[in-house]
Amino acid sequence: MGKNVSIAQIKAHLFAEQRPSVDWVNALRADERKGVQQLLVRYDRILEREAQLIQQFRDMRAFEKTFSFSGAQIAGVDEVGRGPLAGPVTAVAVILPERFELPGLTDSKKLTSEQRARFYEEITAAADVGIGTATSDEIDEINIYQASRRAMVRAVEALANRPDHLAVDAMELPLDIPQTPLIKGDAKSASIAAASVVAKVTRDTYMKTLHESYPAYRFNENAGYGTKAHLEALDREGPSPEHRRSFQPVITREA
């Protein structure tokens, strides 16, 4: 790599969206300029981090395969929305393709909104995805735990293919399918992590739509959780039809 190539040009090529060839990078290692060597240290760290994320994802998929027979279709199942004061609880079941890889996939709460959006697109484009919800009225009728189970069952039933085994985040479902409940499953199972991402994005998108009908509560910002602005709106407006009247902060603010 000749010194007639500026460090700025090398940086642009090294960190371009399209990864440079291994031969080009190896040739670059002979460049003794301090700035070039610093760029290579940064580049190698990125490669190391990417390798770690790939291995983490593969370990999560290998862990799932211990639940059932070789080649079994395993559906990861998760839900979001137990804690909010308004809106549905949303569950998702996901069967990932055998050769699918998504380095960096983990519990949706640990991801940025940009990462969740990108992963959502990749998961829904490639996987068998089922979505189920339970409304605020159902939550009030049967309680949030039972409503979460109901939403999860609906998500499994919405899959295009019947799974051979379920990996469920911290819950057992009333379904005649072998299943493994996992505490903090979205950090252990790739399929559950995928379900958590799709569930989070799906519910957040719905709550933003709901904001158009009930703008006073700022559902587009709080997704139904009891923020200060949300509680102040409840004091002014009283509950909307989407509020969970069995939840204490809403009960005390009934109009």
From TrEMBL:
Q: Where is the composition biased (Basic and acidic residues)?
A: 232-245
The question of whether Cytoplasm is a record keyword is answered with yes
- Residues annotated for a divalent metal cation binding in this entry: D78, E79, D169
Top enzyme class, one word, equals hydrolase
Q: Which UniProt keywords apply?
A: Cytoplasm, Endonuclease, Hydrolase, Manganese, Metal-binding, Nuclease
Q: Where is the RNase H type-2 domain?
A: 72-255
Compartments, as annotated in UniProt:
Cytoplasm
Family matches, as NCBIfam families: PRK00015.1-1 (NF000594), PRK00015.1-3 (NF000595)
In Swiss-Prot or TrEMBL terms, this protein is called Ribonuclease HII
Query: Organism classification, top ranks?
Result: Bacteria, Bacillati, Bacillota, Bacilli, Bacillales
UniProt gene name? rnhB
